[in-house]
Predict the 3D structure of the following.
Amino acid sequence: MNWLRDFVKPKIRALVSKKNVPDDLWTKCSNCEQMIFHRELASNLQVCPHCSYHMRMNATSRLQMLFDNAEYRIIEFPTGLADPLKFKDTKKYTDRLKENRAKTNNQDAIIAAHGKMGGVGVVIAAFDFDFMGGSMSIATGEALLSASRLAILQQAPLIVIPASGGARMQEGILSLMQMARTVAAIQEVKEAGLPYIVLLADPTYGGVSASFAMLGDIAISEPGAMIGFAGRRVIQETIREKLPNDFQKAEYLLDHGMIDMVVTRRELRPMMIKILSLLQNKTPSAQVLAIKKK
Amino acid sequence: MYQALDFEAPILELEGKIEELRHISGGSNVNIADEVDKLQNKVSKLLKQIYGKLTPYQKIQVARHPQRPRLKDFIQGFVQDFVPLAGDRLFAEDQAIIGGIGRIKGYAAVIIGHERGSDTESRLRHNFGMARPEGYRKAQRLMDLADRLKLPVICLVDTAGAYPGLDAETRGQAEAIARSIEKCLTIKTPLISIITGEGGSGGAIALAVADQIFMFEHAVYSVISAEGCASILWRSADYKVTAAEALKLTAQDLLKLKVIDGIIPEPLGGAHRVPQEAIHKLSDTLERALKELIGVDGSVLREKRRAKFIEMGRVGIVG
């Protein structure tokens, strides 16, 4: 009962403690190494304001960036903890799935949604690289199939944004079969006479690049995005030669005739709206016709 | 000379003994027939035992056996009047994939397959069966030819994978494989694929999106090599045996997963021991499949093929 026991700890420490401060307030640009404040980075669409380096973007941010007023409806697809091979490496596959679901808040490595872009209905499926490296699983195949079928139902263009290291090894041969499955899905879209546009995001490799990703009616990419079939390391080990610095970058693919254009992130939405308008509205609009009649 | 695999050591030992007996008896009149017969029986028993329960990694070894029959052997074995057709009409002729027209059991067909080569010189010429974009584009051209002239397509798959090289990437390896898959799903003519040895990832599926898919008993088909998978997921290639088991890449596993339609039995001790028997069995399987598919309306074939692959991936979700 003396003043020593009634001593109240000063609260200053609590005031300056890190509790309320998110640890990702500042991001270091992996290209120019400048520090960027998170709000600035978000408003700049994850592009470094100092050197214009395009950082990776998760699926949700992609959808928010592209749809009008960031409004869209997610297309549900069947998931469940599918583990057809009962796969276990250093961890059980089902545990990995659970961890990645908790980490990303997504069911699998893709989000498919429908909404409007420039006032026109579109279906967009965006890969989430944060979810097991955006790897192609049965569930991602299912999502692409659902997206394709919805596009046909709504007579809407399909936009797919791959960002993937390739197949999901934990699903073995069934992951490989998604290559055929996704190609069959987009074939339905193409045969319905609808545009199929691919935005090849960083990175697009392996079974993803060697299937639906390289079959776009129009293929767009972003500055510096890495796109290829085999990874740089594997190639280097095979041929034992130095690879050019810009090898497998979007600009390199553009130079070699593999894609149509490299567009900065800020220009993406207007460019896509312009393309969709050209592909969807094929005849002069009503007003123009009226003037002509005069 | 027979090139033995590590797990075949006990067989090799017995065969060595037989050889020795024959050598010893060469000059004398001692009757060794009984003894040789006995040992020969033992060899068969042992082969049955070992090959009856090969582990997945041992199957990979058998599938990669340097003396396993190659595309050239299959073509010589059961294709009459084979006329090889070369080039993709765009850039080059890629000898890692060989294609042409010929007759199988009376049926004219387009035959396309990976060729790995069987000696140093031919292996180099065929780039060990690892195709560049030109190979896949040639395959597409030949599938178009088949589609237009209503010939069935037979694809024989045996590759470690598509070639991971600077030139291949620059000329669009991914695009070439993607278009091959698309082509397989487009043509309105029967398409039959057989994994004869190693079915390595994208380089294999580019020629394996078929109406009917078969595998040899000891062939393997996988999304990634066991070695590659081990070094990525276990961070060491030492785990290749474990990875091989986890990947479920044997013909038996794939039949259970409904990824393939049938298994072609191999002669005792693997196709490399009695290639003629393997070649014969394969041609019988092809004849049966051709009989079944020829005459079916092209649009129906294509619809069924697409539906098959759209359903295939769902196996995991249902089961």
About this structure: Chain B has two domains: 6-53, 59-315. The mean pLDDT of chain B is 94. Chain B is about 50% helix and 15% strand.
